[in-house]
Amino acid sequence: MAERIFKKEDFVKSDSEDYKLQFRKDEIGIGSDLTVERIDDSGEHEVVQAHIHRYDDYVEIFWSEPFNGRLLFDSKVTFGE
Description:
Elements (H helix, E strand, L loop, with lengths): L1 E5 L5 E2 L5 E6 H4 L5 E6 L5 E4 L2 E5 L2 E6 L5 E5 L8
């Protein structure tokens, strides 16, 4: 599994009063094996059930507030497969 680390500052306020994080599909692929983890202050990882959308060339992750975390994904699944 590959990962992309993200920070609270990477989130942007969405139109629906929650926060959105975007990744390009060509960076992470389009497979369904996406796992979102929150990283707490002690460095522990917690899997969260974030709302995920695929829109145009992006994968968007929505949550009620920004957080530090990582996105785990299967690096073998590529765009168009």
